[in-house]
Amino acid sequence: GKLILKDFTGDLQVEGYDGKEIVFLKTSFEANDGSSVSKQAEELDPTINGISDNSGIGLQTQKNGNQITVKCLLPGLHTSEYKVRMPGKYSLKIVSNCERSGNITVSGMRNEVEISNCQSVKLINNIGSIVLSTVSGNIDLENCELDKDATLSLVAISGNIKADLSRVDTEEPVSINSISGNVNLAL
């Protein structure tokens, strides 16, 4: 399967595991305008631009075959941090708008990971193709592996790239580009 995450606010953590379920945990919620949010307001199901929250935690989920798309519905003045546990064999794609994005950490995935973000992206102990791009953030790979037929594409604009690859068993292209940042590659 494939999980697509769109427009998440605040920091996002994704962990791959051997189970079959996708679990979302909302770890924090705050208004960026400095006002406090009551417990009752946190529990309201938002409807934004006619899209309803069908998760109970500010997310809309849609399933199409073996692809699941989850969109964060929180308005721009609010942020929330989420943790996601998902089957490590799923493919993962994360797309975030610059005005809403936070740092993203992904660990334990065993398939393709594709992320487009405006803040920092960190991958830990992942195996498979990695396609990452960020603006105004760093890219950090720790103990990642490229298996057979895996590709690696890292692009950072105004950010540094640090890639520690413990195994490279691919003959596919590898591309690492940084504009206004340093590149540190360990093989």
Secondary-structure class: mainly beta
* Helix-residue proportion: under 10%
Strand content: over 45%
The strand order across the widest sheet is 6-7-1-9-11-13-15-17
String of helices and strands: EEEHEEEEEEEEEEEEEEE
> The biggest beta sheet, please?
8 strands, mixed
Q: What overall geometry do the principal axes of the alpha carbons give?
A: globular
The radius of gyration is: 17 Å
Tell me the span between the first and last alpha carbons. 30 Å
The average pLDDT is: 87
Residue windows where pLDDT falls under 50 for at least 5 positions = 31-42
Compute the number of helices: 1
Strand count: 18
Write up what this structure looks like.
The chain is mainly beta. 2% of the residues lie in helices and 57% in strands. The protein contains one helix and 18 strands. The strands form three sheets. The chain has an eight-stranded mixed sheet with strand order 6-7-1-9-11-13-15-17, with no helix packed on it. An eight-stranded mixed sheet has the order 3-8-2-10-12-14-16-18, with no helix packed on it. Strands 4-5 form a two-stranded antiparallel sheet. The longest helix has 4 residues, at 39-42.
